[in-house]
Structures are given as C-alpha cells and as structure tokens.
Amino acid sequence: MPVAKLYHVPLSPFCRKVRLSLAEKKIDCELIEERYWEMGADFLRRNPAAKVPVLKLDDLVLSESAAICEYLEEAFPEPSLMPRSAEARYEVRRLVGWFDDKFHNEVTSKLLYERVNKKIIGKGFPDSGNVKSGARAIKYHLDYMAWLLEHRRWLAGDVMTLADFAAAAHLSSLDYISDVDWNRSDVVKDWYAKIKSRPAFRSILADQIPGFRPPAHYADLDF
Amino acid sequence: MPVAKLYHVPLSPFCRKVRLSLAEKKIDCELIEERYWEMGADFLRRNPAAKVPVLKLDDLVLSESAAICEYLEEAFPEPSLMPRSAEARYEVRRLVGWFDDKFHNEVTSKLLYERVNKKIIGKGFPDSGNVKSGARAIKYHLDYMAWLLEHRRWLAGDVMTLADFAAAAHLSSLDYISDVDWNRSDVVKDWYAKIKSRPAFRSILADQIPGFRPPAHYADLDF
Ligand SMILES: N[C@@H](CCC(=O)N[C@@H](CS)C(=O)NCC(=O)O)C(=O)O
Ligand SMILES: N[C@@H](CCC(=O)N[C@@H](CS)C(=O)NCC(=O)O)C(=O)O
C-alpha cells in the first residue's frame, strides 16, 4: 500500500468522494487540512488549479476528484467501485457528473458555500436568494434519486459504485448543516442509512468544523 | 456502426468534445440543434439534467460529455483517445477536468456565454466585468498550456487524447468569436494547427451561427 496524504477541506464534497474511495479500498491516508483560499505557494505547486482535493500517493501528486477516483479504481481494483460493462460504467459516470456538476451548481454551492464557506473565508453573509434557490432545488434532486432508487438497489444499478459516493459526499456535507430533509423519501433515507453505516463513512461522520455544530442525527446511524 | 444522433448546440465546448471523439472514431452522426433553454418535453425526456450534449446511439440515450467520451472509448476502442497506463490515463482525465471545470468557469462562461449565449437566449447584454475577467484568465490558461506543450507533443503526453479534444473544444468556440490570441505562444499555436487540420475538425470549422460571423482565420488551416 502506498503512503497517502490527502490535502482537503472537511466539508468539500469532492474531497469526501475521494476519502470514501480511499477508505473503501482500505488505503490508509493522512488527512491534511488545506486553507486553499489563502493560496499558499506549496499548495499552488501541488496543484496549479488551486483546488482541493490533492492526493499524494508516494511520489505521485494527483488532483481533480474524478481523475483521482478513476486512477484509484485502475491502480487498486479491489474492492471495485465500478461495474464491468461499458453501459453500466457509463451510467456511473453520468451520475458522478450529475452530482458534481448539476447538483453542485444548483444545490451545494447555493447552500453549503453560502452558509459555511463564505463565513470561513470571510466573504460575508449568505445570499438569501441563493439559499432559497438551493433549498428548492434539493427537493427536485431528492425526488430524482428516489425515482432511480425505486428501480435499483444503488444509484447506478445493483452494486454500490462511485456514483453512490459522489451523491453521499454532497448529501453528507449538506446534512452537516441540516439541509437535507430525510423525510422526503423513504428509499433515499434507506439508501443513505446503508451507505452511512459502512466503515468507510466513519471518518466523515467524525468531522467537526469549528463554529459549525452538526445536528445530533448527523453521525447517528439510526437517524 | 451504430445509428448516431447528437442533440447539440454548435458552440458548446461539451458538444464539440463529443463531436471530435465521434469523428475521430469515424462514427457518422446526425447533428440536431437543441434549443435547450426552451426546455421542450422531448428534450427533458432525453436528459432530465436538461443539458446538451445528448447522444443517441441506436437505442441508448447518453448524456454528460465525460461519461459519453469514456463510453465511446470503451465501446469503440479504435482509434484510441486514451493511453494505456493508469498514470497516463489519470493525466488525460485531470486535464479534461481542468478544461471542463476550471477553464469553463474562468474563461468560457465569462466570454462565450456573455457574448453569444446571452444574446441567443435573450438574456440581455454582456456583463463587462465578466468579459474582462475572462479575457484576463485566458492568458493564464494559454501560458499553462504552453508550459505543458514545451515538455510534451500533446497536452497529456506523447499521443493525442481526449485532453486535447477538451481543450480544442473550448478554444475553437472562443476562436469563433475572436477571443483567442494565437500570438501569445508559438507552441500553443502549433498544437492548435495540428489538431485543426485533422479531418475530425472539419465539421466544427464549418459551423455558422446566425448573427455571429466568425473571423476569416477561424476556418483557415494557416491562421
Ligand atoms: N473539479 C474539481 C473541483 C474541486 C473544487 O471545486 N474544490 C473546491 C472546494 S469544494 C475548491 O478547491 N475551490 C477553490 C477554487 O475553486 O478556487 C474536482 O473534482 O476536484
Ligand atoms: N457536465 C455537462 C455540462 C454540459 C453543459 O453545461 N451544457 C450546456 C451548454 S454548453 C447546457 O446545456 N446548459 C444548459 C443548462 O445548464 O441548463 C457535460 O459535460 O455534458
């Protein structure tokens, strides 16, 4: 197993997706918090894109969460987080794109970034128009997940994949700030209970962000 | 070969990346312009994310450009647009993410969407602050490309890959509106001349958007 260090911020959904992949593949990883908005020279040397996550694996320095997760899948194939057939793999990647592009723009950036990141970075108060629009959009996204999960055990099909990790990464960060209504859909709640109880999820449930206290149900497996 | 239809808009970099992959793999494809902002019912049925590109391949309906390109690579492996080793594949995907996330947010959305999409969709005039910020950011991105191309024949290494198509998709759309300064870097210009002269690029160079005339050099292989 490689020596792994992840430069991250605890509530970043992109970082959480990588943390889940690493943990599921049992790659021990040191977590190093990166104050990316300070644009330190070391940080920019590690990733000229100036974003987290950045993963150091022995001498490799990796950025872009989708590229990192595909690399982990190819270099450490067991346990697998991707199905075999080209069509099933397509569906996983479509859903990763759905969450990391569409859900991120419509929900995560409107709720989490307004309520948490702005405060941490010192960029003022949440914009209430954005918060309202994020609160509206998450309902539609939960309904879409429910529609998928009525036909499938996991989001992309019969096995747990990167698509579940992408979705759970966003939802867990939003759950930390009480922005997920788990009563909206039983199938979505059951799906989250299943993924939340995996050992890979433990480190995420233990996160504590100074100044922001998670609700009691955040780390509770019977929420 | 499958019967292929691509629902697209001509200047969308995500659509152009898929068009380039299809053409390079010699998959004939009917192009159908999609007025996605009208949110037609058929369109939403094809892709609940309400985005282009959407690719119909026989009975499959595919969305999310990265997922589509990976699918094409797996289902039609020749000619290959991905290298073999996990590390080299990582680098391709990192750069695709660089262009489709970072370059898109910092440049394409600030220049192309302000100057073209707003007018087509009827959302008013370009925001000059955005245009200025995009014009500043593209310089930095061209310099980053130059830095890569000083060490490599193609953006991700020694062979042409999806990373080159992602980059060329954004730059060609910006070139259509004269927003690329090709004099900034000789290596970038040489790279673009190489990719522009491929048969796969022809359909892109033939695009005509009513109300927007491309500069004379747009379709010129000796620009
Ligand atoms: N496409 C990137 C997105 C990563 C990203 O946007 N990370 C945020 C934190 S959640 C960040 O570092 N933002 C800083 C910036 O964009 O300058 C990935 O998938 O890794
Ligand atoms: N992640 C998507 C992004 C596609 C995208 O943003 N397409 C734009 C046109 S360039 C679009 O359809 N926008 C409509 C919308 O976002 O509602 C992909 O890679 O296919």
Automatic annotation (TrEMBL), chains A, B:
InterPro entries: Glutathione-S-Trfase_C-like, Glutathione-S-Trfase_C_sf, Glutathione_S-Trfase, Glutathione_S-Trfase_N, Thioredoxin-like_sf
Domain GST C-terminal: 85-218
Residues annotated as domain GST N-terminal: 2-80
This protein's name: Glutathione S-transferase family protein
Gene3D superfamilies: 1.20.1050.10, Glutaredoxin
Domain of life: Bacteria
Oligomer and partners: Homodimer.
